[in-house]
Protein backbone atom coordinates (compact mmCIF):
# COMPACT_ATOMS: atom_id res chain seq x y z
CA UNK A 1 0.00 0.00 0.00
CA UNK A 2 1.27 3.45 -0.90
CA UNK A 3 2.26 5.74 1.95
CA UNK A 4 1.17 9.34 2.47
CA UNK A 5 4.74 10.51 1.85
CA UNK A 6 4.15 10.16 -1.87
CA UNK A 7 1.54 12.95 -1.91
CA UNK A 8 3.96 15.88 -2.46
CA UNK A 9 5.59 14.07 -5.37
CA UNK A 10 2.20 13.30 -6.86
CA UNK A 11 1.00 16.90 -6.62
CA UNK A 12 4.26 18.12 -8.12
CA UNK A 13 3.93 15.75 -11.07
CA UNK A 14 0.32 16.83 -11.62
CA UNK A 15 1.37 20.49 -11.45
CA UNK A 16 4.07 19.81 -14.01
CA UNK A 17 1.74 18.02 -16.42
CA UNK A 18 -0.70 20.93 -16.35
CA UNK A 19 2.00 23.58 -16.90
CA UNK A 20 4.02 21.72 -19.53
CA UNK A 21 1.97 22.87 -22.60
CA UNK A 22 2.04 26.49 -21.37
CA UNK A 23 5.79 26.30 -20.76
CA UNK A 24 6.38 24.88 -24.23
CA UNK A 25 4.34 27.66 -25.86
CA UNK A 26 6.28 30.47 -24.16
CA UNK A 27 9.59 28.68 -24.61
CA UNK A 28 9.15 28.51 -28.37
CA UNK A 29 7.39 31.79 -29.11
CA UNK A 30 7.96 34.40 -26.44
CA UNK A 31 11.32 34.13 -24.68
CA UNK A 32 14.84 33.02 -25.44
CA UNK A 33 15.55 29.58 -24.06
CA UNK A 34 18.30 30.77 -21.76
CA UNK A 35 15.81 33.06 -19.95
CA UNK A 36 12.98 30.60 -19.45
CA UNK A 37 14.98 27.43 -18.84
CA UNK A 38 16.83 28.74 -15.78
CA UNK A 39 13.87 28.92 -13.33
CA UNK A 40 12.36 25.71 -14.76
CA UNK A 41 15.24 23.37 -13.98
CA UNK A 42 13.28 21.52 -11.25
CA UNK A 43 10.43 20.87 -13.68
CA UNK A 44 12.78 19.71 -16.43
CA UNK A 45 14.39 17.45 -13.87
CA UNK A 46 10.97 16.03 -13.02
CA UNK A 47 10.36 15.30 -16.70
CA UNK A 48 13.44 13.11 -16.80
CA UNK A 49 12.25 11.07 -13.86
CA UNK A 50 8.48 11.28 -14.54
CA UNK A 51 8.05 7.68 -15.78
CA UNK A 52 9.84 6.38 -12.70
CA UNK A 53 7.75 8.53 -10.35
CA UNK A 54 4.51 7.48 -12.03
CA UNK A 55 5.41 3.82 -11.67
CA UNK A 56 6.34 4.40 -8.06
CA UNK A 57 2.98 5.99 -7.16
CA UNK A 58 0.54 4.21 -9.50
CA UNK A 59 -1.57 2.93 -6.58
CA UNK A 60 -2.17 6.50 -5.45
CA UNK A 61 -3.04 7.51 -8.99
CA UNK A 62 -5.70 4.77 -9.07
CA UNK A 63 -7.19 6.09 -5.84
CA UNK A 64 -7.26 9.67 -7.12
CA UNK A 65 -9.04 8.44 -10.25
CA UNK A 66 -11.56 6.59 -8.07
CA UNK A 67 -12.20 9.72 -6.02
CA UNK A 68 -12.54 11.78 -9.21
CA UNK A 69 -15.06 9.32 -10.63
CA UNK A 70 -17.10 9.47 -7.41
CA UNK A 71 -16.90 13.28 -7.32
CA UNK A 72 -18.15 13.59 -10.90
CA UNK A 73 -21.13 11.35 -10.18
CA UNK A 74 -21.92 13.18 -6.93
CA UNK A 75 -21.83 16.44 -8.86
CA UNK A 76 -24.41 15.07 -11.31
CA UNK A 77 -26.59 13.78 -8.43
CA UNK A 78 -26.60 17.12 -6.66
CA UNK A 79 -26.57 19.57 -9.58
CA UNK A 80 -28.79 17.75 -12.09
CA UNK A 81 -30.68 14.75 -10.70
CA UNK A 82 -31.71 16.38 -7.42
CA UNK A 83 -33.82 18.78 -9.50
CA UNK A 84 -36.08 15.87 -10.41
CA UNK A 85 -35.87 14.17 -7.01
CA UNK A 86 -37.18 17.28 -5.24
CA UNK A 87 -39.31 18.58 -8.09
CA UNK A 88 -42.74 20.02 -7.35
CA UNK A 89 -44.88 21.35 -10.15
CA UNK A 90 -45.80 24.98 -9.66
CA UNK A 91 -49.55 25.49 -9.21
CA UNK A 92 -51.17 27.26 -12.14
CA UNK A 93 -53.11 30.43 -11.50
CA UNK A 94 -55.57 29.65 -14.27
CA UNK A 95 -56.56 26.14 -15.27
CA UNK A 96 -57.32 25.91 -18.96
CA UNK A 97 -58.25 23.00 -21.19
CA UNK A 98 -57.10 22.75 -24.79
CA UNK A 99 -58.22 20.86 -27.85
CA UNK A 100 -55.85 17.91 -28.31
CA UNK A 101 -54.92 15.60 -31.18
CA UNK A 102 -53.59 12.23 -30.01
CA UNK A 103 -51.47 10.56 -32.70
CA UNK A 104 -50.55 6.87 -32.85
CA UNK A 105 -48.59 5.27 -35.69
CA UNK A 106 -49.00 1.54 -36.25
CA UNK A 107 -47.61 -1.03 -38.64
CA UNK A 108 -48.86 -4.61 -38.27
CA UNK A 109 -49.99 -3.85 -34.73
CA UNK A 110 -53.41 -5.54 -34.76
CA UNK A 111 -52.95 -7.25 -31.40
CA UNK A 112 -51.58 -4.13 -29.70
CA UNK A 113 -54.32 -1.93 -31.15
CA UNK A 114 -57.00 -4.30 -29.89
CA UNK A 115 -55.45 -4.32 -26.42
CA UNK A 116 -54.23 -0.74 -25.96
CA UNK A 117 -56.21 1.61 -28.19
CA UNK A 118 -59.29 1.58 -25.91
CA UNK A 119 -57.14 3.21 -23.21
CA UNK A 120 -56.74 6.28 -25.44
CA UNK A 121 -60.36 6.24 -26.59
CA UNK A 122 -62.06 6.13 -23.17
CA UNK A 123 -60.21 9.09 -21.67
CA UNK A 124 -62.19 11.30 -19.31
CA UNK A 125 -61.60 14.51 -21.22
CA UNK A 126 -64.70 16.47 -22.13
CA UNK A 127 -62.93 19.15 -24.15
CA UNK A 128 -62.61 18.67 -27.90
CA UNK A 129 -60.08 16.02 -28.86
CA UNK A 130 -59.39 13.41 -31.49
CA UNK A 131 -57.40 10.18 -31.65
CA UNK A 132 -55.60 9.73 -34.98
CA UNK A 133 -54.25 6.29 -35.86
CA UNK A 134 -51.95 6.18 -38.89
CA UNK A 135 -52.10 2.64 -40.26
CA UNK A 136 -48.78 2.42 -42.07
CA UNK A 137 -48.91 -0.25 -44.79
CA UNK A 138 -50.07 -2.98 -42.43
CA UNK A 139 -50.55 -6.49 -43.77
CA UNK A 140 -52.39 -7.82 -40.72
CA UNK A 141 -55.95 -7.15 -39.52
CA UNK A 142 -55.25 -3.62 -38.25
CA UNK A 143 -57.59 -2.02 -40.81
CA UNK A 144 -60.60 -4.06 -39.72
CA UNK A 145 -59.91 -3.59 -36.00
CA UNK A 146 -59.73 0.17 -36.50
CA UNK A 147 -62.94 0.21 -38.50
CA UNK A 148 -64.66 -1.70 -35.70
CA UNK A 149 -63.46 0.83 -33.11
CA UNK A 150 -64.60 3.67 -35.37
CA UNK A 151 -68.22 2.50 -35.05
CA UNK A 152 -68.15 3.08 -31.28
CA UNK A 153 -65.78 6.05 -30.93
CA UNK A 154 -66.50 9.06 -33.13
CA UNK A 155 -63.30 10.82 -32.02
CA UNK A 156 -61.22 8.13 -33.75
CA UNK A 157 -59.73 9.25 -37.06
CA UNK A 158 -58.07 6.65 -39.28
CA UNK A 159 -55.37 7.52 -41.79
CA UNK A 160 -54.56 4.67 -44.17
CA UNK A 161 -51.14 4.67 -45.83
CA UNK A 162 -50.81 2.24 -48.73
CA UNK A 163 -47.54 3.41 -50.22
CA UNK A 164 -44.03 3.55 -48.74
CA UNK A 165 -42.20 6.88 -48.63
CA UNK A 166 -38.96 6.57 -50.59
CA UNK A 167 -35.80 7.94 -48.97
CA UNK A 168 -37.58 8.49 -45.62
CA UNK A 169 -36.99 5.36 -43.56
CA UNK A 170 -38.66 4.57 -40.26
CA UNK A 171 -41.64 6.11 -38.53
CA UNK A 172 -41.15 9.72 -39.61
CA UNK A 173 -43.28 9.71 -42.74
CA UNK A 174 -46.42 8.22 -41.14
CA UNK A 175 -45.97 10.48 -38.11
CA UNK A 176 -45.62 13.53 -40.38
CA UNK A 177 -48.85 12.55 -42.17
CA UNK A 178 -50.59 12.17 -38.81
CA UNK A 179 -49.41 15.61 -37.69
CA UNK A 180 -50.55 17.21 -40.96
CA UNK A 181 -53.92 15.51 -40.57
CA UNK A 182 -54.36 16.79 -37.00
CA UNK A 183 -57.08 19.39 -36.47
CA UNK A 184 -55.74 20.84 -33.23
CA UNK A 185 -52.61 22.69 -32.16
CA UNK A 186 -51.59 20.50 -29.22
CA UNK A 187 -50.31 17.08 -30.28
CA UNK A 188 -49.99 14.14 -27.90
CA UNK A 189 -47.93 11.22 -29.19
CA UNK A 190 -47.75 7.63 -28.07
CA UNK A 191 -47.17 4.19 -29.62
CA UNK A 192 -49.51 1.35 -30.48
CA UNK A 193 -47.89 -0.86 -27.84
CA UNK A 194 -48.54 1.74 -25.10
CA UNK A 195 -51.58 2.30 -22.93
CA UNK A 196 -52.28 5.34 -20.73
CA UNK A 197 -51.78 4.56 -17.04
CA UNK A 198 -55.02 6.37 -16.19
CA UNK A 199 -58.16 7.82 -17.76
CA UNK A 200 -56.77 11.30 -17.08
CA UNK A 201 -53.70 11.02 -19.32
CA UNK A 202 -54.85 13.60 -21.89
CA UNK A 203 -56.06 15.95 -19.19
CA UNK A 204 -52.80 15.74 -17.25
CA UNK A 205 -50.50 16.22 -20.23
CA UNK A 206 -52.39 19.17 -21.74
CA UNK A 207 -52.70 20.85 -18.34
CA UNK A 208 -48.94 21.63 -18.37
CA UNK A 209 -49.26 24.06 -21.27
CA UNK A 210 -49.18 27.79 -20.69
CA UNK A 211 -48.39 30.80 -22.87
CA UNK A 212 -44.68 29.95 -23.22
CA UNK A 213 -44.78 26.14 -23.24
CA UNK A 214 -44.50 24.36 -26.59
CA UNK A 215 -43.11 20.95 -25.56
CA UNK A 216 -44.09 18.64 -22.69
CA UNK A 217 -41.94 15.62 -21.82
CA UNK A 218 -43.74 12.67 -20.23
CA UNK A 219 -42.63 9.37 -18.70
CA UNK A 220 -43.15 6.16 -20.64
CA UNK A 221 -42.87 3.30 -18.15
CA UNK A 222 -43.05 -0.48 -18.57
CA UNK A 223 -45.39 -2.96 -16.98
CA UNK A 224 -43.97 -4.66 -13.89
CA UNK A 225 -43.44 -8.37 -14.36
CA UNK A 226 -41.40 -11.14 -12.76
CA UNK A 227 -37.79 -11.81 -13.70
CA UNK A 228 -34.46 -10.02 -13.89
CA UNK A 229 -34.91 -8.95 -17.50
CA UNK A 230 -37.98 -6.92 -16.55
CA UNK A 231 -36.11 -5.27 -13.68
CA UNK A 232 -33.16 -4.37 -15.91
CA UNK A 233 -35.45 -2.93 -18.59
CA UNK A 234 -37.33 -0.83 -16.04
CA UNK A 235 -34.06 0.26 -14.42
CA UNK A 236 -32.65 1.40 -17.76
CA UNK A 237 -35.90 3.23 -18.54
CA UNK A 238 -35.85 4.90 -15.13
CA UNK A 239 -32.18 5.84 -15.53
CA UNK A 240 -32.79 7.37 -18.96
CA UNK A 241 -35.78 9.34 -17.62
CA UNK A 242 -33.73 10.49 -14.64
CA UNK A 243 -31.33 12.08 -17.09
CA UNK A 244 -33.57 13.58 -19.75
CA UNK A 245 -36.11 14.96 -17.25
CA UNK A 246 -33.39 16.33 -14.93
CA UNK A 247 -31.44 17.94 -17.76
CA UNK A 248 -34.65 19.52 -19.01
CA UNK A 249 -35.23 21.07 -15.57
CA UNK A 250 -31.67 22.43 -15.81
CA UNK A 251 -32.42 24.01 -19.19
CA UNK A 252 -30.56 21.35 -21.18
CA UNK A 253 -33.38 19.40 -22.84
CA UNK A 254 -31.86 16.85 -25.18
CA UNK A 255 -34.59 14.25 -25.84
CA UNK A 256 -38.07 12.94 -25.19
CA UNK A 257 -39.61 9.51 -25.70
CA UNK A 258 -42.22 8.86 -28.36
CA UNK A 259 -44.17 6.65 -25.97
CA UNK A 260 -45.31 9.78 -24.14
CA UNK A 261 -44.53 13.13 -25.72
CA UNK A 262 -46.47 16.29 -26.51
CA UNK A 263 -45.67 19.37 -28.54
CA UNK A 264 -47.45 22.02 -30.55
CA UNK A 265 -48.10 21.68 -34.23
CA UNK A 266 -46.46 25.04 -34.84
CA UNK A 267 -43.17 23.76 -33.37
CA UNK A 268 -43.18 20.86 -35.82
CA UNK A 269 -43.65 23.09 -38.87
CA UNK A 270 -41.32 25.80 -37.57
CA UNK A 271 -38.60 23.16 -37.17
CA UNK A 272 -39.33 21.90 -40.71
CA UNK A 273 -40.51 18.59 -39.34
CA UNK A 274 -37.91 15.85 -39.43
CA UNK A 275 -36.03 17.26 -42.42
CA UNK A 276 -32.79 17.65 -40.45
CA UNK A 277 -32.56 13.88 -39.97
CA UNK A 278 -34.94 12.37 -42.54
CA UNK A 279 -32.24 9.96 -43.65
CA UNK A 280 -32.28 8.18 -40.28
CA UNK A 281 -34.94 5.62 -39.31
CA UNK A 282 -34.90 6.80 -35.69
CA UNK A 283 -34.92 10.21 -34.08
CA UNK A 284 -38.59 11.10 -34.51
CA UNK A 285 -38.64 11.72 -30.76
CA UNK A 286 -35.13 12.36 -29.38
CA UNK A 287 -33.51 14.11 -32.36
CA UNK A 288 -36.58 16.24 -33.01
CA UNK A 289 -36.68 17.39 -29.38
CA UNK A 290 -32.89 17.88 -29.38
CA UNK A 291 -33.36 20.30 -32.24
CA UNK A 292 -36.63 22.03 -31.24
CA UNK A 293 -36.39 22.37 -27.44
CA UNK A 294 -35.17 25.50 -25.69
CA UNK A 295 -34.79 26.46 -22.06
CA UNK A 296 -37.99 28.50 -22.21
CA UNK A 297 -40.36 26.35 -24.29
CA UNK A 298 -40.10 22.94 -22.57
CA UNK A 299 -41.65 21.52 -19.42
CA UNK A 300 -41.88 18.06 -17.87
CA UNK A 301 -44.82 16.14 -16.42
CA UNK A 302 -44.29 13.46 -13.74
CA UNK A 303 -47.87 13.34 -12.48
CA UNK A 304 -48.65 9.62 -12.24
CA UNK A 305 -51.86 10.16 -14.20
CA UNK A 306 -49.69 11.29 -17.11
CA UNK A 307 -47.65 8.06 -17.42
CA UNK A 308 -48.00 5.52 -20.20
CA UNK A 309 -47.26 1.81 -19.85
CA UNK A 310 -45.75 -0.59 -22.40
CA UNK A 311 -45.12 -4.29 -22.49
CA UNK A 312 -41.34 -4.81 -22.14
CA UNK A 313 -39.26 -7.12 -24.29
CA UNK A 314 -39.61 -10.74 -23.24
CA UNK A 315 -36.23 -12.02 -24.43
CA UNK A 316 -32.69 -10.74 -24.03
CA UNK A 317 -32.15 -10.75 -27.79
CA UNK A 318 -35.25 -8.64 -28.40
CA UNK A 319 -34.25 -6.08 -25.78
CA UNK A 320 -30.62 -5.85 -26.95
CA UNK A 321 -31.69 -5.27 -30.56
CA UNK A 322 -34.18 -2.64 -29.41
CA UNK A 323 -31.61 -0.72 -27.34
CA UNK A 324 -28.96 -0.89 -30.04
CA UNK A 325 -31.44 0.62 -32.49
CA UNK A 326 -32.22 3.45 -30.06
CA UNK A 327 -28.56 4.29 -29.44
CA UNK A 328 -27.77 4.83 -33.11
CA UNK A 329 -29.28 8.33 -32.93
CA UNK A 330 -27.44 9.68 -29.87
CA UNK A 331 -24.30 10.44 -31.89
CA UNK A 332 -26.31 13.19 -33.63
CA UNK A 333 -27.11 15.11 -30.42
CA UNK A 334 -25.73 18.59 -29.90
CA UNK A 335 -22.08 18.59 -28.74
CA UNK A 336 -22.84 19.91 -25.25
CA UNK A 337 -25.42 17.17 -24.71
CA UNK A 338 -23.04 14.48 -25.91
CA UNK A 339 -20.43 15.81 -23.49
CA UNK A 340 -22.84 15.84 -20.51
CA UNK A 341 -24.04 12.32 -21.24
CA UNK A 342 -20.63 10.91 -22.11
CA UNK A 343 -18.82 12.43 -19.13
CA UNK A 344 -21.33 10.97 -16.68
CA UNK A 345 -21.39 7.59 -18.45
CA UNK A 346 -17.59 7.36 -18.38
CA UNK A 347 -17.49 8.17 -14.65
CA UNK A 348 -20.06 5.42 -14.07
CA UNK A 349 -18.23 2.95 -16.26
CA UNK A 350 -14.83 3.23 -14.54
CA UNK A 351 -16.06 3.53 -10.94
CA UNK A 352 -16.44 -0.11 -9.93
CA UNK A 353 -13.30 -1.42 -11.71
CA UNK A 354 -11.33 1.34 -9.95
CA UNK A 355 -13.03 0.50 -6.65
CA UNK A 356 -11.99 -3.15 -6.90
CA UNK A 357 -8.45 -2.21 -7.93
CA UNK A 358 -8.05 0.30 -5.07
CA UNK A 359 -9.46 -2.12 -2.48
CA UNK A 360 -6.93 -4.73 -3.54
CA UNK A 361 -3.91 -2.55 -4.26
CA UNK A 362 -4.19 0.67 -2.28
CA UNK A 363 -6.39 1.04 0.83
CA UNK A 364 -9.69 -0.80 1.12
CA UNK A 365 -10.74 1.43 4.02
CA UNK A 366 -10.33 4.70 2.09
CA UNK A 367 -11.80 3.15 -1.05
CA UNK A 368 -14.94 1.98 0.76
CA UNK A 369 -15.34 5.41 2.39
CA UNK A 370 -15.35 7.01 -1.07
CA UNK A 371 -17.85 4.41 -2.31
CA UNK A 372 -20.07 4.87 0.75
CA UNK A 373 -20.23 8.66 0.27
CA UNK A 374 -21.15 8.22 -3.37
CA UNK A 375 -23.80 5.57 -2.67
CA UNK A 376 -25.33 7.53 0.20
CA UNK A 377 -25.99 10.61 -1.92
CA UNK A 378 -27.04 8.46 -4.87
CA UNK A 379 -29.45 6.52 -2.67
CA UNK A 380 -31.17 9.66 -1.42
CA UNK A 381 -31.58 11.16 -4.90
CA UNK A 382 -32.51 7.91 -6.66
CA UNK A 383 -34.86 6.82 -3.87
CA UNK A 384 -36.93 9.99 -4.03
CA UNK A 385 -36.99 9.92 -7.83
CA UNK A 386 -38.05 6.26 -7.94
CA UNK A 387 -41.04 7.09 -5.76
CA UNK A 388 -42.05 9.91 -8.10
CA UNK A 389 -41.80 7.65 -11.16
CA UNK A 390 -43.50 4.69 -9.46
CA UNK A 391 -40.37 2.51 -9.60
CA UNK A 392 -39.73 2.25 -5.84
CA UNK A 393 -39.57 -1.56 -5.94
CA UNK A 394 -36.18 -1.22 -7.69
CA UNK A 395 -34.59 0.68 -4.80
CA UNK A 396 -33.52 -2.40 -2.72
CA UNK A 397 -31.53 -3.52 -5.78
CA UNK A 398 -29.80 -0.14 -6.25
CA UNK A 399 -26.22 -1.36 -5.69
CA UNK A 400 -26.67 -4.40 -7.92
CA UNK A 401 -28.26 -2.32 -10.67
CA UNK A 402 -25.57 0.34 -10.34
CA UNK A 403 -22.86 -2.31 -10.81
CA UNK A 404 -24.82 -3.63 -13.81
CA UNK A 405 -24.24 -0.31 -15.58
CA UNK A 406 -20.59 -1.30 -16.16
CA UNK A 407 -21.72 -4.32 -18.19
CA UNK A 408 -24.53 -2.29 -19.78
CA UNK A 409 -22.04 0.18 -21.25
CA UNK A 410 -19.82 -2.64 -22.49
CA UNK A 411 -22.83 -4.18 -24.20
CA UNK A 412 -24.28 -1.12 -25.87
CA UNK A 413 -21.37 1.29 -26.43
CA UNK A 414 -20.53 -0.27 -29.85
CA UNK A 415 -24.04 0.70 -31.06
CA UNK A 416 -22.95 4.35 -30.99
CA UNK A 417 -20.65 3.68 -33.95
CA UNK A 418 -22.96 1.51 -36.06
CA UNK A 419 -25.03 2.65 -39.01
CA UNK A 420 -28.76 2.49 -38.22
CA UNK A 421 -30.94 -0.02 -40.06
CA UNK A 422 -33.59 1.48 -42.36
CA UNK A 423 -36.72 -0.19 -40.92
CA UNK A 424 -38.70 0.96 -37.86
CA UNK A 425 -40.57 -2.31 -37.45
Structural account:
Residues 1-8 and 29-37 have low confidence and may be disordered. The chain has helices at 7-29, 33-37, 41-56, 58-85, 110-121, 142-152, 172-181, 201-206, 228-249, 265-270, 286-292, 316-327, 335-361, 364-388, 398-412, and strands spanning 100-106, 129-136, 156-161, 186-191, 194-196, 215-217, 220-222, 261-264, 298-300, 308-310. Among the domains are: 4-56, no CATH class; 100-333, Spore Coat Polysaccharide Biosynthesis Protein SpsA, Chain A (Alpha-Beta Complex). The chain starts with 6 loop residues before the first helix and ends in a 13-residue tail after the last helix. The strands form two sheets. A seven-stranded mixed β-sheet has the order 3-2-1-4-8-6-9, sandwiched between helices. It is built from 15 helices and ten strands. Helix 6 links the parallel strand 2 and strand 3. It is α/β, with parallel strands linked by helices and 425 residues long. 53% of the residues lie in helices and 11% in strands. The protein is elongated, with a radius of gyration of 26 Å.
> Cα distance, first to last residue?
55 Å
- CATH homologous superfamily of the domain at 100-333? Spore Coat Polysaccharide Biosynthesis Protein SpsA, Chain A
Q: Mind telling me which CATH architecture of the domain at 100-333 this is?
A: Alpha-Beta Complex
Shape: elongated
Largest sheet: 7 strands, mixed
Helix percent band: 40-55%
- Rg result: 26 Å
User: What is the average per-residue confidence, as pLDDT, rounded to a whole number?
Assistant: 87
Number of strands: 10
Tell me the series of helices and strands, N- to C-terminal: HHHHEHEHEHEEHEEHEHHEEHHHH
**Top CATH class of the domain at 100-333:** Alpha Beta
Share of β-strand residues: 5-15%
The number of helices is 15
